[in-house]
Each structure stands twice: as C-alpha cells, then as structure tokens.
Amino acid sequence: MTVLDVNDESPTFTSSQYNVTLTEDTPVSSRPVLTVLAVDRDSGLAGHVTYSIASGDGTDKFHVDADSGALSVISPLDYETKTSYRYVNVGTSTSYRCVNIGTKTSYHGTMVP
Fold first, then answer.
1. 85 Cβ contact partners less than 8 Å away, ≥ 6 residues apart
2. Among the ranges 64-73, 77-86, 99-108, which has the highest mean pLDDT value?
C-alpha cells in the first residue's frame, strides 16, 4: 500500500511585508529588484507555488515572475509623478490560495529622487 500526499496545505509567505527602496533611474529590465517567497508544505506538484500581483497601484510598472516570485521594473519610474507603490502578491498552489492583505503578502516600494 502506498500513501500519497493530498493538497491540504496552503502557501505561506516567509515575510509579513516586503519593502524595497528604488531610485527613479532604476532600469527597466528583467533583473529583479525584489524576490518574494512562499512555502507550501505539500509534496510534489501540490506544493508548487506560483506568484502573481493581485492588486495594487501602478501595476503597469512592475511584473512578478510566476515561477520565481522575482519582481522587476517593466516601465520607467518617475519620482515627481509617484513616490510610493503598494501591491498584494498572491502565492497559489494547485488548489489553495494564500492572500493575506497587509500581513503576509504585501509589498511596499518607496521611491527616492
């Protein structure tokens, strides 16, 4: 008899909030400015976590890689237009979603001139 793991654990982010300070001349590139991490204790595919930005201001400025959680700048930043961005990142496994707004999945980016 073989006992298989079922998807009974939800992903949990390793930090309650991620913060980063960027300058307005931060280059637009696929190079990450921050990486978020969520852990799912299930084994195999049931424990694989994918990432996305659920909400936030200026979502046209950043992209999160679905597999790695790496956040990169995809559009030029302008300090005179906006000095701060807030996002809610989501970690999803096969059948559980972890969305803890402001506690386990938030991201706050502050611009400096």
1. 56, 57, 58, 61, 62, 107, 108, 109, 111
2. 64-73
